[in-house]
UniProtKB/TrEMBL annotation:
One of its GO terms (molecular function) is racemase and epimerase activity, acting on carbohydrates and derivatives. This is Rhamnose mutarotase. It comes from Cyclocybe aegerita. InterPro entries: Dimeric_a/b-barrel, Rham/fucose_mutarotase.
């Protein structure tokens, strides 16, 4: 079911080749506190895909709240999420010049513009 007031977000980042196995392994059991922070921030339908030939991680999620920037700031301030990012950031390489890690001023994951959407019939 589509939520008419939702915001779709697609982001990419490069996965370091030596981290592939560990990254996939830890994402099989994401920490409950990290998932709770996303839920509190009105993030739903979150998935990360991996394209191994280019070492690309591609994340997609829907935001169904009313204050995207404010909710993302709350996620970045969450202690459990900060601990998670300390583990995962070291496995990744940002495409954003000047990025220093998740939750910092320059976004760690690059956000992609939407160029096409087909929702079909409700």
């Amino acid at each position: 079911m589509s939520v008419s007031h939702s915001k779709r977000v697609c982001q990419i980042i490069k996965l370091k080749p030596e981290a592939e196995e560990e990254y996939i392994k830890i994402h099989a059991e994401v920490w409950p506190g990290v998932l709770a922070a996303l839920e509190r921030a009105h993030v739903v339908d979150y998935s990360i895909h991996y394209y191994a030939p280019l070492q690309l991680l591609i994340a997609n999620f829907k935001y169904i709240g009313a204050d995207y920037e404010g909710d993302m700031k709350k996620v970045a301030e969450d202690p459990e999420t900060q601990r998670w990012w300390k583990v995962t950031d070291g496995m990744q390489e940002s495409f954003n010049q000047g990025a220093e890690g998740s939750g910092k001023e320059v976004p760690w994951w690059a956000t992609l513009p939407e160029v096409f959407r087909f929702e079909g019939k409700a």
